[in-house]
Amino acid sequence: MISASINPIDVKTRAGLGFVAASKRPNEFLSLGYDVYGEIVDASEEAKSLIGKCAFGMTGFPNSPGTYADVLDVPLEDVFILPEVKQDVALGGLSLAGLTAMQALQRLPTHLPLYVSAPTGGVGHLAIQIAQLLGYNLIAVTRRPDNLMLSELSARLGFDVISFDTFFAEQRQGSLLDLVGGEVAKQCLDTLQEGSIIVTVPTITKDMICSHAQSRNIEAEGVVVQKNASQLACLYDWYAKGG
């Protein structure tokens, strides 16, 4: 292992919250961590040629976390093998958040304005960059419109940034990638017009948000990340090109 990352699901699981914690048997030890980036130091006979290469990916999701470790056994299909040895610890934070962002965006059409809440978070800052690459008409909605990272991304990629107060000030039609959940997401739904679409990521409040959306004739669904080798390759290609 070279690097891993701390994701919100790890924090919730450690606190005994969410579906992973709920599935844990009493008195069972449960390690944490799903993101993996490291050097291959041993392999099965058919994969011996990969020893010495680096790889990154998401493994053990959802009920077998454990990447907070020095050495880890990883199924080959869970990782992307880097084309060159690259000691870049940032790759340890790309997989779960990047795959979540990609898979959530796939559920949202490109012809509607796309609002992304919490654009400075782990999933959010990747989602806004991926959305730009995929051709969405993007508006970032944040409590911190003056955030330096967000300002730099907005200037470089050319998307709008608004505060939640501005978002709430008028009725809107569009798609919402909800990365906040809870009462804030409900208030966002109250601002969206019929025919809008929401994809919500926080699992703890998914049912509440989808129910509230249904009452307003707004299409809604939650998303739980899945491993995907081709999407890992795409994420690495964008990352390697500086996208």
UniProtKB/TrEMBL annotation:
InterPro entries: GroES-like_sf, NAD(P)-bd_dom_sf, Zn-ADH-like_protein. One of its GO terms (molecular function) is oxidoreductase activity. This is NADP-dependent oxidoreductase. It comes from Pseudoalteromonas xiamenensis.
